[in-house]
Each structure stands twice: as C-alpha cells, then as structure tokens.
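>> Question from a student workshop board

For tomorrow's exercise we were told to take the sequence and the ligand below, predict the bound structure, and bring the output to class. My setup keeps failing. Could a helper post the expected result so I can at least see what it should look like? The ligand is iron/sulfur cluster.
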Amino acid sequence: MKINIIKSEYCDFCSGVKRSVNIARDSSKTEKVHTLGPIIHNPQVVDELKSAGIIPVDDIEKISGIRTILIRSHGITLEQESRLKEKGLNVIDATCPKVKKTHKIARDISDRHGMVIIIGAKSHPEVKGILSRAKEKGVVISSPEEAALMEDFEDAGVLVQTTFRSEKFFEIINVLARKSKVLEIYNTICEETVLRQNELKSIAGRVDLLIIVGGKNSSNTKRLYELGSEIVETYHIEVPEDINYSWLADREKVGIVSGASTPKSIIKKIEEKLELYNKKNLKKEVA
Ligand code: SF4
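>> Workshop helper replied:
Here is what the output should look like for this input. Compare the format with yours to find the bug.
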C-alpha cells in the first residue's frame, strides 16, 4: 500500500533559531566564532557548523584563546553575561528578540510584585536566563501538580518559557489563580510555538502514524512528541536513518512535524526516504 505523506507547513527553523544561525554564519566569514553551548539543539546542524568554524564551548571558565563568543537564541543568565564581560571577549548577542522580551518582563514583575513565577523546564538554558532576571524573587514550576504544592501567596506575576505547551500553561494558571489575591499573567509562549502545536494536533487527527523530527536534546521537540503521542502512534527521530520501514506497513497516511531547530534539508531527506519506501512497495505489489 502506498503511504500519503502529510507534512506540517512549519517544517523548518523557527525565526529565532534561523536568525542566530545566520548571525553565526555571517560572523564566521571573517573570524572563528565560539558559541556558549551548541548553537541549537540539533546535533547534525551543530556538526555541519563546526566545519564552517562555528564551535560550541560548554564552560565559560574553560575558555582560553577565544576572541569572539556568540550567545545563542535561548539567551544566557545575568551571571554568564557578567563573566563574558570580565573576560573581555567580543560578544555577539544572537538571543531571540522574543526571549529578550521575557527577560524584560521578568525584571518588571520582580520590581512590582513579591514573586516571579516562571513556568518551564528548570534545567533549560532559556528558563535559567529568565530566572536570573527575576533576581531572588523567581520560582520555576512546570506542572499543575507543582503549582498545587505552592503555599498561597499575596501577589505575583507569572510568565512562561517560549516553547511551553499552551494547554498545560492554562491548567497551571488555573491552579495559581486560586492561590493568590493578585496574579499578573504574561502568556509569553511564542506564537510560532502555538502554530506548530496547533498544526501538529490537526495533522495527528488525520494520520495513522506521526513522525516528529528534531534533536533528542531539544525540549520543544520532546513536547511535540508528547503532544503527538496523546493522539496517535508517534515516533521521534533525528535523521532519515532512524526510520524503520516496519513502522509503515499497512499505513495509509503518515504525518511529518518538526521541532523549532530542525532544518528543511533534514525534512527533505526524510520525505525522500518515505518516497523510497513507496517505490519499493509498489514494485513488490507489481511483482
Ligand atoms: S521558539 Fe519563538 S521565542 Fe523561541 S527561539 Fe524560536 S522564535 Fe524565538
């Protein structure tokens, strides 16, 4: 049986990732550029960029012999910012403007309220960056259960990681609203995240199998996988080689959705691998 492929229209880098990769590529034309952490959560792209002179470094303290450092789209913490200044490095700030906006909101909330609640993954660099701008008033939570465990509070402001799941955000807000007298809410989920999630839900409802493409270390891709798995059989892959043809037996429609740090070139190769399956299958049927 031939499978029909339904591809999300958002199969490419998000605008923030595209911008930071372009800045890195442009800068690397004149000098070697180091990035604080991999520029995006996609090992294949990171490897490709290394050969263009864009090299990730993990620890500021271990930096030596480096002149130029690029801040990736997730942004960095205030402490990291100060350390880079102290070290006298040439800093290229490629933080996504929408992430920068969340930094400003965290600072504003912290000036006006007793607590800054950040909804997101504690270990994610974007969340760490926001938390550092909330000064000592920041608290990070990631589920309605964690919100329910919080003590009642007088007043707070709340914002959210740009790639968080929309419906989960509203569930958490519902719990927080019952705990406080004053709660100022900033829905800082990026509109591109919402479009991706909505498109995924629409495709997942129409296919027999869903393929999510993105780095295994990408938190927005993991969230898409979570969302897809609630609706239909879903696989999370990084490269075409991860596709197992046995998944496709007796399927009519297969959906493809990508994370915010997956380039178009990988999606194209995945489509080619699925088309190859169709060709092989048709040959078998004819024989
Ligand atoms: S998901 Fe949105 S906020 Fe996050 S890097 Fe991409 S464009 Fe920026």
